[in-house]
Specification:
Number of helices: 17
Oligomer: single chain
Structural class: alpha+beta
Order of helices and strands: HHHHHEHEHEEEHEEHHHHHHHEEEHH
């Protein structure tokens, strides 16, 4: 791991209550910007500021502490609005007697997170029994103005539902993964679900602790390459740490019932590598491209060289293939089309720069936070956090002035520049 990532994983582990042997790694002054970029890109600032000890916070440079505090304040204000919308969504489902389990981020409140301000949230994920119940849930949310977007057939959740307010998306799942868990395993997930208090609402159902850990591991390893991978791994680590001995004893059998042993093993192995999480016994690892790409994702704090850009696009292409086709492409099968597609994407981006492509900055709502900027994508509902360098580059593009190519490339890769 690069120095910034090594220091950040150590800080995150300490904040979560597990010290990595060897103490805090030293970090050169010039590397703190990379540390901060990793925190911002993985949406970790709010939680880190909230739970870090005074001793840990004092080890960060003053400028870093100031920027983290600004982000925390902005997330706190944003979370008030999103929390209210999440309650409206869950309340509408409850009024129509829809049977559902709250998944992923929203399902972690009350266990890993105390408040909405600790974890920025862009959507609400729920699991329902079958397609008929999914249709009932969609009709219940229609009264709030949530309408389905475009999607693809055969996936484990419907196309995300969005409203004109663009505060949150809603994903209605009929399974936890594609291809789906076997019926017996999925029935077990429902039988083991537990009640949890949700602020301002009657108790809602969430996954049992072990099922939540395994689902989060699976979600982390199969999530698109632009997702907050480090945060997903940290949450997997914290969920694993909270398991009881009884849950640990049945974990390996549970994963075999699900049929995703190699994938979940890779996520747990990476959680151990990054945060010192105790491994679960009884897991067997097999070489899969998903594990290979996951390691590469951890090693890419930037995409400044053509080689790294090609690697990023290779990973993206493979992960998209898994999500769309519902299958993992094992080495060496499927490698050639992935190589061609991924390399083509990277080279086409490079060619656009070489021929002087005229980039266009979006007309999205924004708020300056310290030296950075929060940018709200009105199309997808995603909130982008730009550091000072990216903010300056975006302003330069808006004025029709030249900007640093690596920064503009990163903004284009994230869909901010067109």
């Amino acid at each position: 791991m690069n120095p910034a990532l090594t220091r950040l994983t150590s800080d995150l582990a300490e904040a979560a209550g597990t010290r990595i042997p060897g103490g805090r790694p030293a970090l050169e002054p010039t590397a703190w910007q990379a540390w901060f970029d990793l925190v911002a890109r993985n949406h970790l600032a709010a939680w880190l500021v909230q739970v870090a000890s005074p001793d840990l916070r004092s080890s960060w440079p003053v400028a870093v502490r100031r920027e983290l505090a600004s982000i925390h304040y902005a997330v706190l204000l944003d979370s008030m609005v999103r929390a209210r919308e999440a309650r409206r969504i869950l309340d509408a489902l409850g009024r129509d007697s829809v049977e559902f389990i709250v998944l992923k981020g929203a399902g972690l409140f009350g266990s890993l997170y105390e408040t909405f301000a600790d974890r920025p949230m862009g959507d609400v994920d729920i699991l329902v029994r079958d397609a008929d119940e999914a249709a009932r849930a969609a009709r219940a949310l229609d009264s709030l103005g949530y309408l389905p977007g475009s999607g693809f057939q055969g996936h484990h959740h419907l196309a995300p539902l969005r409203s004109e307010r663009r505060l949150l998306a809603v994903e209605i799942h009929t399974n936890l993964v594609t291809p789906g868990l076997p019926a017996q395993a999925l029935n077990g997930v429902w039988d083991r679900s537990i009640e949890r208090e949700f602020p301002g609402l009657p108790p809602v159902q969430v996954l049992s602790p072990l099922d939540a850990c395994l689902h989060h591991a699976l979600h982390a390893i199969t999530n698109p390459v632009d997702a907050p991978f480090l945060r997903d791994l940290l949450e997997t680590s914290r969920l694993r740490q909270a398991l009881t001995p009884e849950e640990e004893a049945v974990a390996a059998d549970r994963v075999r019932q699900w049929g995703y042993e190699a994938w979940i093993h890779e996520a747990l192995r990476l959680a151990t590598t990054c945060f010192g999480t105790a491994p679960l016994s009884g897991f067997r690892s097999r070489a899969r491209m998903v594990g290979f790409w996951a390691e590469r994702r951890l090693a890419w704090p930037d995409a400044g060289t053509l080689g790294r850009r090609i690697g990023m696009h290779l990973a993206r292409t493979h992960i998209e293939a898994m999500l769309l086709r519902g299958s993992a492409l094992n080495l060496p099968s499927g490698l050639l089309p992935i190589l061609i597609s991924g390399s083509g994407r990277a080279l086409s981006t490079r060619w656009r720069f070489r021929r002087g492509h005229a980039w266009t900055a979006p007309d999205w709502p924004s708020a300056d936070v310290g030296q950075g900027r929060l940018l709200y994508d009105t199309g997808s509902g995603e909130v982008h956090l730009l550091n000072a360098e990216a903010r300056a580059a975006l302003d330069a593009v808006s004025r029709g002035e030249p900007a640093p190519e690596p920064v503009v490339r990163e903004l284009a890769r994230k869909g901010i520049l067109a």
